[in-house]
Design goal:
Strand 1, helix 1 and strand 2 form a beta-alpha-beta unit. The protein has two domains: about 120 residues, NAD(P)-binding Rossmann-like Domain (Rossmann fold, 3-Layer(aba) Sandwich), CATH 3.40.50.720; about 180 residues, 2-Layer Sandwich (Dihydrodipicolinate Reductase, domain 2), CATH 3.30.360. By secondary structure, the protein is an alpha/beta fold. It has a seven-stranded parallel β-sheet, with helices on both faces. A seven-stranded mixed β-sheet has the order 10-11-12-7-13-14-19. Helix 1 crosses helix 10 and helix 6 crosses helix 9.
Length: about 375
């Protein structure tokens, strides 16, 4: 019988929080796994033994015997290929991944879902993650969504993991594909600024294009012809400065190893702002032939914490439900949100609005429909 949950990268910045959250609900059933058993053991001791240690290197031969009692794997490390995820699905182990790596999503999409004996859930976290779920709610609010604009605000005073910092810096000079009017277009990071209304607390801020994976997956999963995701920081000066560097062509210098490493170190050491994050989804389309617009905003503190809480909520739902559809899914294809002023509820779509849900508090939400 499969009764265990394994979090790979479970002693890391986000993975450790996921382990701690899950162990509160399932003590002694959660394992913090990774290549360094000593670090896993140290983390286990810090939890009073509620989380157990395990050594797993996802790049090595799949440890089927070691995972024979595992029901859910939560992956917190970027993978070079889909071999580990495929092995989990063949063995009947549900696979949850918090990566934002678009290439990995593309590889997973190529898998034959009919040969899976379990479910893979992708786009789990803040963005992609909550942005996908808000997009799903926006799609349900109208007959037809013609355009979806996603905006993300990140605090420069927050503690971000090393991988997240490197990903952000590496994508500042990026060129990437988006869907515009049903056609693929190539755009540059930190261009095409859009004035975004975050509400009375944060006010209006200019956001700029950034290669978050949600804008590509949502165009496909929700069938929306125009989708964009933009980014700003809580420091208006930092956001404007980066946009100016892009306009001057200076961001391309980050492709050089020395300046790139310097930028990564600076992002990691210097606290230029707060720990705040916010995400907004604006959808425009038609209902009964009339033009309509829906806006959804979620705000809170500490991006890594909300990522962990979303991942833990998804893992809990998958662990406790016996009827998860097999195959490859993005978060919005299995789950939906119920928003209140100071909390949100995450629930499986098949359960309906009256079904059981995982509640995340300590946030601020608002919606507007016109």
């Amino acid at each position: 019988m499969r009764t265990e949950i394994v979090v790979i990268g479970g002693y890391g910045h986000v993975g450790g929080q996921i382990c701690t959250l899950l162990s509160e609900k399932f003590p002694q059933a959660v394992y913090a796994a990774g290549r360094n058993f000593k670090r896993a053991e140290q983390f286990s001791k810090s939890t009073g033994g509620r989380v157990k240690p395990m050594r797993i290197d996802a790049a090595e031969t799949f440890p089927a015997e070691q995972l024979r009692r595992v029901k859910v794997v939560v992956m917190c490390l970027d993978q070079k290929d889909t071999s580990f995820a495929e092995a989990c699905l063949r063995e009947g182990i549900h696979y949850i991944d918090i990566t934002a790596n678009l290439e990995f999503f593309r590889q997973m999409a190529q898998l034959d879902g009919s040969s899976c004996d379990a479910a893979a859930i992708l786009s789990v976290g803040l963005a992609p993650g909550l942005t996908n779920l808000l997009a799903g709610e926006a799609a349900r609010s109208m007959d037809e969504v013609r355009q979806l604009d996603i905006s993300i605000l990140l605090g420069l005073g927050d503690s971000h993991g090393q991988a997240a910092i490197e990903w952000t810096v590496d994508n500042l000079p990026a060129q990437f594909e988006v869907m515009q009017g049903g056609r693929i277009a190539r755009v540059d990071s930190f261009t095409d600024g859009l004035q975004t209304d975050w509400g009375t607390d944060l006010g209006s801020r200019r956001t700029y294009r950034f290669p978050f994976a949600d804008q590509q997956t949502l165009a496909r999963t929700l069938g929306i012809p125009t989708v964009s995701t933009r980014l700003c920081f809580d420091s208006k000066a930092a956001t404007a400065g980066i946009a100016l560097l892009q306009k001057l062509g200076a961001l391309r210098l980050l492709k050089g190893r020395r300046l790139r490493n310097l930028a990564v170190a600076s992002f990691g050491r210097v606290k230029w702002g707060s720990e705040r994050y916010a995400v907004k989804v604006e959808a425009s389309g038609l209902t009964n032939g009339a033009r309509v617009r829906s806006e959804y905003v979620i705000q809170g503190m500490k991006e890594a914490e909300i990522t962990a809480r979303v991942a833990a909520a998804v893992a809990e739902a998958i662990y406790e439900n016996r009827h998860i559809p097999e195959g490859i899914h993005h978060l919005e294809q299995l789950f939906r949100l119920r928003l209140e002023r100071d909390r949100l509820s995450l629930l499986l779509q098949e359960q309906g609005p009256s079904g059981g849900s995982s509640i995340i508090k300590g946030i601020s939400c608002w919606t507007r429909h016109t």
